[in-house]
Task: structure prediction
Amino acid sequence: MSNRYQRFVHLHHQNELLTLPTIWDAASARLAQACGAHAVGTSSAALAWSCGHADGGSLPMRALLQRVAEIVRVTALPVTVDIEDGYSDDPLEVATCVQHLAELGVVGINIEDGDGDPALLAAKIAAVRHILGPRSLFINARTDVYLRGLAHGEAAIRMSVERLQTCARSGADGGFVPGLQLPQDIAALKEQIPLPLNVMWLPGMPSNETLYAAGVRRLSAGPALFMHAWASASTATRALLSGTLAADDMAPDYATFNLMFSSRP
Result:
């Protein structure tokens, strides 16, 4: 069992929220490490966009593996990877993909049900566990009940609970419910699942302290950091084109950047 994996598991059971910056390449991973993050996870959307592909299963597997290898190489932090639905409806193909990621050194994955049959996600998780054998990997099972509006109110809580309980029985270590925001809904859901609960940052999100008190143990950023970075780069590019670009006093100089990527993490 790797030290990074052990650290990652511990972060889900400490007395404060695990706030997970979502990254998309080696530079964003090193930035998160420099900012004090304890672990990082890829955003499937941000990673796909940064490779020139749309989100939603269109990223070629070779591109995913190449990018993840680059990320793991430059950071000492535990890295977990969002693999959408595993890029296949065949549980064995999904398990093989995860095996390749585990061999690169990642400590966990997110895998989602989307609007498909929740039993298929459970089968994929079971297949991953089988192919990995004794190898440790944190499987974060994501259900999109809220994100896709598959149900509302108490029905959404019940549906999410049923799906995550099934995933837990198949070998999941965590439950991810993007779109879940209200503290009372979080608390009602968390009472009924045996897994550390992960939610995704959205505008209007309660404070980290409120989320933790309601039962959340992991907060990830989805594509938000990539979108913020895009907005900042867009502003600077427009300034360059208009002849008004000024030095950013907050940015490191060239030598600092180069040194950061000249040394091992």
User: Anything to note?
Assistant: The first helix runs from residue 3 to 11. The mean pLDDT is 96. The chain has eleven helices and nine strands. The domain at 3-260 is CATH 3.20.20.60 (TIM Barrel).
